[in-house]
Write a structure and sequence with these properties.
- The protein has 400 residues and is an alpha/beta fold.
- The chain has two domains: 159 residues, Rossmann fold, CATH 3.40.50.1100; 216 residues, Rossmann fold, CATH 3.40.50.1100.
- It has 16 helices and 14 strands.
- A six-stranded mixed sheet has the order 3-4-14-9-10-13, sandwiched between helices. A four-stranded parallel sheet has the order 7-6-5-8, with helices on both faces.
- Helix 5 packs parallel to helix 7.
- The longest helix is centred in the N-terminal third of the chain and has 15 residues.
């Protein structure tokens, strides 16, 4: 793996003041073993050769960078390009990371895999790679998310995963993550926890970022081939933040000339229920790392809300917090209704039904492109496909 000029995290796993390891004593050895093994793998050309071969032959990479001409014309202004992560095997970017971590688990001799999932895409990706490598798979999923993402629950079970409902708290992603960590604490030796985003204790935020950075690497090469220049703006949705950091990381050295924009879930609005941690959150510790978290005045974690299960998380990856503080990435938000409208617009102009998560970034891309000139370009990371969301879409949008 080539060295990157951006140096975070430091040796202790901190991105500035964020990140680190805030974990119970039971997991200290696991964390140390994982960090040591990943550092070895990071320098192992054979590891990356196998990873990249599987990305090509199994996942279907490179994914296209698509010039959305109809959407661009309808919007007016800049040319809009879509990075088509929805065309990955399993339908989202999540497979990039699940595959890398499964290879690492196999390298460490771990046979029992656990994972958390919200929208279900990470759960499906984890179940997929566990089937590929003959690993036992347990996926924790909030009961509320199981209802609104029933097709993905069925996919996980078909792939051989044990999907365990989480009934406490808000019964969404936060609670599924907490339950997965409890499992890991109780079964530390034989278990490998495949975390689905750039959250959690070190080295997870760094590790997941590295596996997802293939998105930005491909995108930079593709946009230069297609336009001969770097884009003016790049946008991606942000929940935990894996698809966004995967897109942004390769472009961080160019961040002074390219505007990088993360789009959070404003839910019902910034004064109502939402999941806009970077916009409204305060620094605290959640799931093993220091990050910006939605909290009340007493420091208790507030309930998060988004129409998209994958963005319905009250915190955000520590690297995003650091990049916001450095001014290298700008963060904004889109409401449930804005995301639904953008999803409809994309479907009717380009014949692409995107995930509700991705629709938040599509909304930003449409509104921003309209304020730009025809010689400018904006790239939107289309992180996943929308078939998993059809029940929600049918409930929220009149289709007659």
């Amino acid at each position: 793996m080539t060295q990157h000029p951006y140096s975070a995290p430091d040796a202790s796993g901190h991105f500035g003041t964020y990140g680190g390891k805030f974990i119970p004593e039971t997991l200290v050895k696991n964390a140390a073993d994982l960090e040591k093994e990943y550092q070895k793998a990071r320098q192992d050309d054979q590891f990356w050769h196998e990873y990249n071969t599987l990305l090509s032959q199994y996942v279907g990479r490179a994914t296209p960078l698509y010039h959305a001409e109809n959407l661009s014309k309808k919007t007016g202004g800049a040319k809009i390009f879509l990075k088509r992560e929805d065309l990955c095997h399993t339908g989202a970017h999540k497979i990039n990371n699940a595959l890398g971590q499964a290879l690492l688990a196999r390298r460490m001799g771990k046979k029992r895999i656990i994972a958390e999932t919200g929208a279900g895409q990470h759960g499906v990706a984890t179940a997929t790679v566990c089937a590929l490598f003959n690993l036992d798979c347990i996926v924790y999923m909030g009961q509320e998310d199981m209802k609104r993402q029933a097709p993905n629950v069925a996919r996980m079970k078909l792939l051989g995963a044990d999907v365990r409902p989480v009934t406490n708290g808000s019964r969404t992603l936060k609670d599924a993550t907490s339950q997965a960590i409890r499992d890991w604490i109780n079964n530390p030796e034989e278990t490998f926890y495949i975390i689905g985003s750039v959250v959690g204790m070190h080295p997870y935020p760094m590790m997941v970022r590295d596996f997802q950075s293939i998105i930005g690497k491909e995108t930079k090469q593709q946009i230069l081939q297609q336009t001969g220049k770097l884009p003016d703006v790049i946008a991606a949705c942000v929940g935990g933040g894996s698809n966004a950091i995967g897109m942004f990381y390769e472009f961080l050295p160019d961040a002074r000339q390219i505007e990088l924009v993360g789009v959070e879930a404003a839910g019902e609005g910034l004064t109502g229920l939402n999941a806009a941690s970077l916009t409204l959150g305060k620094t605290g510790v959640l799931h093993g790392a220091m990050m910006k978290i939605l909290q009340d005045n007493y420091g208790q974690i507030s309930e998060a809300h988004s129409i998209s299960a994958g963005l319905d998380y009250p915190g955000v990856g520590p690297e995003h917090c650091h990049l916001q503080d450095l001014g290298l990435v700008t963060y904004t938000s889109a409401t449930d209704q804005e995301a639904l409208a953008a999803l409809q617009t994309l479907a009717k102009t380009e014949g692409i039904i995107c995930a509700l998560e991705s629709a938040h970034a599509i909304h930003y891309g449409i509104t921003r492109a309209a304020k730009m000139t025809p010689d400018q370009t904006i790239i939107v990371n289309l992180s996943g496909r929308g078939d998993k969301d059809m029940e929600t879409i049918m409930r929220e949008i009149r289709l007659d």
